[in-house]
Amino acid sequence: MEMIGAQAVIESLKNEGVEVVFGYPGGAVLTLYDALYKSEFPHVLTRHEQGAVHAADGYARATGKVGVCFATSGPGGTNLITGIATAYMDSVPLVAITGQVGVSLIGKDSFQEADICGITTPITKHNYLVKKVQDLPRILKEAFHIARTGRPGPVVVDISKDVFNATFDYEYPETVSLRGYSGSIIGQAADIEAAVAELKQARKPLIFVGGGVNISDTAAEFREFIQLTGFPVITSLMGLGCIPNHAEENLGMVGMHGTYAANMATTECDVLVGIGVRFDDRVTGVVNQFAPKAKILHFDIDPAEINKNVRVDLRVVGDLKWALPLLCQTIAADKTMDWKGQTAPWREQVYTWKKDQPLVYRQTPDVIMPQQVIETVSRLAGDDDIIVTDVGQHQMWTAQFYNFRSPRTLMTSGGLGTMGYGLPAAIGAQVGHPDKAVVLISGDGSIMMNCQEFATAANNGFPVKTIVMNNQVLGMVTQWQRMFYGERYSQSTLKGQTDFVKLAEAMGATGFRITKPDELEAVLRQALATEGPVLVDVQLPEVEDVLPMVPVGGRLDQMILGG
Amino acid sequence: MKYTLAVLVENRPGVLTHISGLISRRAFNIESIAAGHSEEADTTRITIDVEVDDEIELEQVVNQLSKLIDVIKIINLTHVDPIQRELVLIKVRANPVTRADIINIVDIFRAKIVDVNRETMVIELTGEQTKIDALCEVLHDYEIIEIARTGKIALSRGPIAAKDM
Ligand SMILES: Cc1ncc(C[n+]2csc(CCOP(=O)(O)OP(=O)(O)O)c2C)c(N)n1
């Protein structure tokens, strides 16, 4: 069909089943926005391109579909960078479409020109510069295929302005052919056999579950595996929700702010099975002391994750959608094994750790404790409600004290640790799930980094509920300054002059403030029940640490405990 | 240790930058990199020498490179005793007194003189890197004005192509 490049982009989005685009217009994409207008394609105008890319990311994490954002050339594109890097670190399927200056102007430092492909090469799964309109359908087909298959990730398609205007005969390809890339990764059945053989030997097995299980939508298969074996489980930040927090086998999050039971079990286990995890340095503590007594088995879709951070003894490379069902089948078929009996003393040991050293915090009359806020939100929230966080202490308290029950219910910037991620990501999650409650837990530092997006939420009536954990400081920074820099609070106190309630109201949202513990539950209930976007400013003490904590360079069993 | 990899990639703009960028970004060290067309028009062959601590680190290099969409195949040629060659051009100061000596050296190395004028000579040599190193070393006794080396390329022996290995 005869059409211009801009129309072809919209048609391709339709062909890919894209429901909505997040974006921000500008000179290089005006023709694209004109085509969007004519076709009435659903679009959410954010107030900053960083908002658009995080929203697309939140949408993708919450739904499992590819998130799409638009930005113009130059500053539009560079404003996407943090969001693209955030998505890359957490393996989020994303297609970012940027405008580029006209073909004859490329490479001449033209007005609003930036080399987006060059800039995004280290933070994308792949990227394209489109200079010929004939290439557009193939490239878009490939971009979506690459973003969503294998280990998902962000793909940038940078399209020259000329391409949007050029007329050609559009036909969308049915298939992709990429010699160097296979999206489906089916592993070797023999690896599963070998893994089961190792598990049979284990007396102190420990299962370490990560974001890969959330991404591959295999929480059900994972839970079946745990049910069959009764093996204790630890999770990474990204793995929260794969197994309910309250499940008996779940020892909680491992690592720097992990639970006592999770960190001790890691130190003492004899077989550690990583499933869809990448052994991040926030998890391992000092690497050569990580799981020192264990054989390490690693299940992952990405062969490059094997032996990257820790040396593993046995690998199962392949999609968890292939690996986990086969693992369960193999285990279920073996009637000779008494999995629970064989590991009974170990399980008793880890459950004792869990019981004796639970996560605790001090309670002070008349002071709202941050952990208490999270516990209250957790109590009021439904099993499938979506929790989004920003980055800092509030993020870690959410990971520790929120009772995650379902997969894909936590959206957080785990790998890059991006402050300002929360509000736009919450908007994206809400767009993806209009019927679910979306609650953002943010900090007084983080919320300011993209607070302009309250306008987006208000103008569109997105009912995101934001809870600002207002401790008047960059809490996580002050914690480190308190612990490791002699309480020299260099540039980390925010002085609390900002009135968050007024901020929300100025943007068209509803604001609440909570100053006393006895108001906490009632006002939170009211806030959650209020229509439209809401901000709740919760006044917290300045000084409170996230504990337990393993100091950098420490061993997991050398954590500082709380209480 | 040094390893030699043959990397077959899509013949697309920017692919060499992607490869070299990825290797250095991941803090691996490239000793030499050489790219050119292969027997297939749409495929470029890149020969890379990397210096890594051990096979586990090499595996990381290979796995990370394999993730690039434009990379079709990576073959480790280190252990197959490949034919390895590099081309060098050396411009050396040569006057009537030294010229005969230099010609002598060129003969011994079976190199070629590709340009002569009153003050200089340009010498061309193809060979294994050690041989090229040796020629450069000897010519250091004369005044070397400039050297251009291509970096190593390598091909396995026998009938099987790297892409089928
Ligand atoms: C974009 C960005 N800049 C800086 C940091 C470093 N950083 C990590 S946590 C933190 C403090 C966060 O403060 P706040 O949002 O108030 O949360 P709190 O720790 O008080 O809960 C900072 C500055 C970061 N993670 N992201």
Give the proportion of residues in helices of chain B. 25-40%
Q: Span from first to last CA of chain A?
A: 68 Å
Tell me how many strands of chain A there are: 20
What amount of the residues of chain B lies in strands? Answer: 35-45%
Write down the overall geometry of chain A: globular
Oligomeric state: heterodimer
| Ligand catalogue | thiamine diphosphate
Radius of gyration of chain A: 24 Å
In terms of per-residue confidence, which ranges of chain A show pLDDT below 50 for 5 or more consecutive residues?
A: none
Characterize the biggest β-sheet of chain B: 5 strands, antiparallel
Helix content of chain A: 25-40%
By helix and strand content of chain A, what is the structural category?
A: alpha/beta
From the alpha-carbon coordinates, what is the Rg of chain B to the nearest angstrom? 19 Å
Low-confidence stretches of chain B: none
Shape of chain B: elongated
Could you give a quick summary of the protein structure above?
The complex is a heterodimer of chains A (563) and B (165). Chain A is built from 24 helices and 20 strands. Chain A has 563 residues and is of the alpha/beta class.
Question: Care to describe what's here?
Answer:
Chain A has 563 residues and is α/β, with parallel strands linked by helices. In chain A, 38% of the residues lie in helices and 16% in strands. Chain A has 24 helices and 20 strands. Chain A has a six-stranded parallel beta sheet with strand order 3-2-4-5-7-6, with helices on both faces. Chain A is globular. Chain A starts with a strand and ends in a 24-residue tail after the last strand. The mean pLDDT of chain A is 97. Chain B is of the alpha+beta class and 165 residues long. Chain B is built from four helices and nine strands; from the N terminus they run βαββαββαββαββ. Chain B has helices at 15-25, 55-66, 99-108, 129-139; strands at residues 2-10, 29-37, 43-51, 71-76, 83-93, 112-116, 120-127, 144-149, 153-155. In chain B, strands 5, 6, 7, 8 and 9 form a five-stranded antiparallel beta sheet that branches. The two termini of chain B are 23 Å apart. Chains A and B meet through loops of A and α1, α2 and β4 of B. The complex binds thiamine diphosphate (TPP).
